[in-house]
Amino acid sequence: MYSKIIVAVDVAAIEKAERIVPRAVQLRREGGKILLVGVVEDLPGYVLAEVPASISLDARRDAEAKLDELRKRHGLDAELEVRQGAPARELLAAAAEHKADLIILASHRPDLSNYFLGATADRVVRHAQCSVLVDR
């Protein structure tokens, strides 16, 4: 059982989070905490010039709303955090900052460039300082 669990939520694929949230609840130690983490990726500079300035703020608000909806749907007493940047880097940073002892994330079906795991899952598994559970 784990005391502090980071649940990585891809808000663009919320159906994957629907599968991993119950696992976090099962693995949480009594009195333990769950933190739902969504990451809004940075847009390349050449794209930023072509989109409204508020797009990043809108993406963060949308992510927060989806995380809150997920939390309510599962009746969780979980903390929410939306971070901005590269997903693997931000998930690892969140785990370190919150002293997590488990990261749970879903992986997509890989292609030849990342045959066994998705790119984000692969990086998290390789660099995490705590246990990682990958749902496929």
TrEMBL record:
This is Universal stress protein. It comes from Pseudorhizobium halotolerans. Belongs to the universal stress protein A family. Pfam families: Usp (PF00582). Transmembrane segments: none annotated. InterPro entries: Rossmann-like_a/b/a_fold, Universal_stress_UspA, UspA. Residues 1-134 form the UspA domain. The lineage of its organism: Bacteria, Pseudomonadati, Pseudomonadota, Alphaproteobacteria, Hyphomicrobiales. CDD domains: USP-like.
